[in-house]
Specification:
With 596 residues, this protein is α+β, with helices and mostly antiparallel strands. Helices cover 18% and strands 27% of the residues. It contains 11 helices and 33 strands. Strands 5, 14, 15, 17, 18, 20, 23 and 27 form an 8-stranded mixed β-sheet that branches. The radius of gyration is 31 Å and the shape is elongated.
């Protein structure tokens, strides 16, 4: 409700004085009469104050319960007041109603414990015990980042990464092991999971042969198949983290967007709760939006009679809190009327509590997108800023409210306020990612994934995985299918395709290309550093590329500890990348023509 509740609440009576509301509110001392107490013709039309009204026509009000009013005041609609309580709180028992009203009269502030914020900004490393994954974890922790790891073997992970590592025990090939609560607070994923390839003749306990790259041994698949790990596993991982890391297009909270729609149970919450007569409703116009599409409409009549001056619509409390912690704010698509409105977000299920509030201006007769950052929300209670309120928690959103009011907060007034009818079409409310968007899913793939089916390729000059793709259960084919799942997911991503991985140190100059053509080697240390740099770089967002060092296979690369190479600025490489280049273009161009 509007946060300017009067310190005392009076019911107008037929006598020359007002009676303070008490537990006798339901007594026959206050005679109810059926009459129309509002003189404005526009107000003679009945709004449905609760939920959606899909019929845009208004219905004539023929009867209305009101308390007989003094000449200079209009009647207070007790019936609408009770309906408001009923809609938001269920059937109002007299005891609960009296308790609510006494709280209003006493002016006490709500008491609620400060809830601890959930972990935010966590980077999940999948495949954290592998050659690249464990290096990523070490670097992130050295940089002071919050890290969580997804592993299959808890004992191995703690032995390798330390006993205090924040870990999830799960298997991406088994969706049932990837429980939603495991990923709470995760904002970014670095995925270094890969199907296991090893020498047919076996390996040392520390996989020394494998670490040299399959150029040096005859390989075979160990454990789960490429289809299970690279394709089905990728699908399961994406589904598990999609809600927590966010989508480039945002998340629809309310409204209509192409083939997607989401409705919410809006109800009127007007100044009737403080004795006023303003009214509003929220309805759906099936063709009132842009280009004849559906839209919601917040409309009503606002009046300052009886010291009122606000109308609003508020959703019922969500049964499950809306977690928008992956996003930076809410974007409203509205058709303005030149007035200033408020958006209020609540993170408590209490009826009357702090509302995190922001005002927004509209342009008359224009559809516009209004972005309201979460960082701009102000904690307000009864028109006053609550300095010691807990920080806004976007992972625990319980309800939304739209308001048109005479009042701002802390004594300020709405400079655009006008009494009378208004309406605000609103076609969508969605969470958004602020620009520039950075990758939320960084994947370590493999160079060569588009080459097995590329015609005219000299396989003798290609890495063993390309030559042996079929023998290795189509390992590169399924790696490419997994990449496609990432690109189609809507999650901002980076796909890094290293050439053959080595145990050499980072530091060599790099060659970064697109189109899946290069061969060579690169240090696992270097790939790990590049993954972490990609997380922070908008230049790497939605890009796919291959990388190798300038050092040929025949030459080992070493670093002098007394004179290490300078740290790289990986943005130098990311800035040259282009959108939409994956290497699949050559497959499409060389495909045989379809017979007519």
């Amino acid at each position: 409700m509007e946060c300017c509740f009067l310190s005392t609440l009076h019911i107008p009576s037929s006598s020359s004085r007002s009676r303070t509301l008490s537990s006798q509110v339901f007594s026959n001392r206050y005679q109810l009469v059926l009459s129309s107490s509002i003189s404005n013709p526009f107000l003679h039309h009945k709004f449905k104050p609760f939920g959606y009204d899909r019929n845009l026509s208004y219905h004539n009000r023929t009867k209305r319960g009101s308390i007989r009013a003094e000449a200079e005041k209009q009647g207070w609609d007790v019936g609408r007041f009770l309906k408001t309580l009923y809609f938001f709180n269920g059937p109002p028992s007299p005891a609960k109603l009296f308790e609510f009203l006494i709280e209003k009269l006493s002016g006490t502030s709500p008491s609620e414990p400060v809830k601890a914020m959930d972990n935010s900004g966590v980077i999940l490393v999948a495949g954290a015990t592998g050659g690249v994954g464990r290096r990523v974890v070490d670097l992130l922790r050295k940089n002071g980042r919050s890290v969580r790891v997804l592993v299959r073997n808890e004992e191995k992970a703690k032995r390798m990464l330390g006993p205090d590592v924040d870990l999830i025990v799960g298997d991406i090939t088994k969706a049932s092991t990837l429980l939603p609560e495991y990923f709470k607070g995760v904002r970014t994923v670095i995925n270094a999971v890969s199907v296991i390839v090893g020498p047919k003749e076996g390996d040392t306990p520390d996989r020394a042969k494998y670490s040299q790259g399959i150029k040096f041994f005859e390989p075979e698949i160990k454990g789960d198949s490429p289809e299970m790990v690279e394709f089905i596993g990728m699908k399961n991982l994406i589904n598990a983290v999609k809600e927590t890391v966010g989508l480039r297009s945002g998340k629809l909270i309310f409204g209509f967007d192409e083939n997607i729609s989401r409705e919410l149970p809006w109800g009127a919450l007007d100044d009737v709760v403080m004795g006023g007569v303003s009214e509003s409703t929220f309805l759906i116009d099936s063709n009132g939006g842009e280009n004849g599409t559906p839209t919601g409409i917040f409309r009503g009549i606002v009046s300052t009679t009886n010291n009122g001056g606000f109308t609003s619509v508020r959703t019922k409390n969500f049964s499950i809190p809306e977690d928008l912690s992956a996003y930076d704010g809410l974007e409203l698509r509205v058709k303005g009327n030149g007035l200033r409105y408020k958006l209020i977000i609540r993170t408590s299920r209490d009826w009357d509590t702090v509302g995190y509030t922001v005002g927004f201006d509209t342009v008359k007769d224009q559809w516009q997108s209004v972005r309201l950052p979460f960082s701009s929300l102000r904690p307000i209670f009864r028109a006053k800023t609550v300095a010691d309120a807990p920080p806004f928690n976007p992972s625990e959103i319980i309800s939304l409210q739209l308001m048109f009011s005479k009042f701002e907060y802390d004594g300020k007034l709405n400079p655009t306020f006008l009494e009378g009818p208004f309406q605000l079409p609103i076609s969508a409310i969605r969470a958004y990612l602020k620009e520039p968007v950075t990758p939320r899913f960084v994947h370590v793939g493999s160079a060569g994934v588009t080459r097995p089916d590329r015609p005219g390729l000299d396989l003798s000059k290609q890495p063993p995985a390309v030559r042996l793709n079929k023998e290795l259960d189509f390992i590169l084919t399924y790696k490419l299918k997994g990449e496609d799942l990432i690109r189609e997911s809507g999650i901002p991503y980076t796909i890094i395709r290293p050439c053959a991985l080595t145990e050499e140190p980072a530091g060599a100059d790099l060659i970064v290309e697109q189109g899946d053509n290069i061969t060579g080697k690169i240090s696992r240390d270097e790939v790990a550093r590049m993954c972490i740099a990609a997380v922070e770089s908008p230049y790497a967002c939605d890009k796919t590329f291959e990388v190798k060092s300038v050092i040929p296979f025949s030459e080992p690369y070493t670093v002098d500890p007394e004179n290490p190479p300078p740290e790289k600025d990986y943005n130098v490489y990311f800035q040259i990348l282009k959108d939409g280049i994956t290497g699949k273009e050559s497959l499409e161009q060389s495909a045989p023509p379809v017979p007519v």
